[in-house]
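Interim report to the steering committee. The following record documents the input for THIF-type NAD/FAD binding fold domain-containing protein (504 residues).
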Amino acid sequence: MSSWISHSVSSHKAQLITTAVVSGAFFSCAILTFQSIRRRQRVEDLKASIPSISDEHLATKLTEFGAASEVFAPSKEDEHSRALAIRAQQGDYDDELILEQLARNRVFLNDEGLSALRSSFIVVIGLGGVGSHACAALARSGVSNIRLIDFDQVTLSSLNRHAVATLADVGTPKVHTLRRRLEQVAPWVHFDCCNEMLTAQSVERLLGSLPDGRKPDFVIDAIDNIETKVDLLHYCHKNDIPVISSMGAGCKSDPTRIFIGDISASTDDPLSRSVRRRLRLLGVADGVPVVFSSEKFVPGKAKLLPLPDDEFEKGKVGELGVMPDFRVRILPVLGTMPAMFGLTIANHVILEITGYPHEYIASKGREKLYEGVHGGLLGYEQKLARHWGFDQEGLRMPLSAADVGYLIEEVFRGKSVVSGLHTKLALVRWRPPPADFVDTSIPGQKVTKLNIQDVVCMTRDEVAVHEKEVLKPGKNPEDYYDASIVALVKRRHAEEAEFAKFRY
């Protein structure tokens, strides 16, 4: 060992390498030390450049909104209202005054109902046009504990539909705008403001109990972002938390078409369709009450505006959103419609909490239609089984009546892929079945191998022709139908496959 070291030291090449390594390490340390000293010096220079507080350089405190106090300085009325609210929320407020203010509700709901409403805890998520009106109505009606959740601020364009925001509120968080304005109406209401965006990771915390242990009596979903909406509704459904969700109020103008119903019944709204599909992939097909409009789009009515081409050409469209993956297109909204959605939601919550009798008119009753189409589809499968030599007695299929409704309404938009007709609809296989399309592997059971993407929607007359010309002869649909029909079926199946990716 010692001889190797002696040899290495005596080697001229080894000496050069050692010198280079030591020199490199020395200069690296010197450079890093110099940079550290310069950085500290710059920080000190920056600190020294900040003027001291004086009449010339007057420092002011930040407001609760995080802005300079002189920008959003509270008025004398705001200060008085805030002081009154603090006292009222601590119990320093005559209960007789509250009951007098709520006298009309008290007569309508009776003492027991009003007491239930006053002791309730409501969570409102999304405080735009829909959520702000729902929240304002609940506060005015006697709800004493309201949690407000929204990450956004009031903008000028908010003022056409927001319940309480004024020009003075532009640039302030929506949660504080609502709290500040509604404290002037009902100072005894306890507002828990959460100025943040609800996510799948934060939903459990944001829907948590009050300090006294009370859990939410109702959750109002007024979110317009699909991802967040689905996360919230799935969590509430899974944890048995009462919830009502607002579907899209944008591009709607007919107040007579606003309904309350199950999410499985909401129609004619892209937001409804997307939410239903994703919830269904999470195992939630129904059981979520929603407010929606059945108004159909016709030429001449407002529609979702496309993003200008020059924004796409910039290459980073996502940067236009206020949050990652948030919508960036302009949504036309008639200011009255979100208010009607919000007030409808508040009305539902009040009736549910107080136990007041209510029975809503259904927007449509198509359950019998789905059951009939389901039976017809099974009949077509039995015919094919018999045609291909299988015993069709007792044959079953994996698709349910709910699946049939999903296929008709969501996948095929309630019309035939062949003619576009909306009446006398049926479902049938698109392609001839494989040789082993009847599964007999389970003793005593015969099940046809049929999934959602095997099926198309046609009229009953078109199904008869389809059976005769395509299914029984074993032909490809491409050999019989026009390319436009084949392309439409392919597009509908591709859309369904895309939604299936969200299955957890």
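The first strand starts at residue 121 and ends at 125. The committee is asked to note this result when reviewing the revised timeline.
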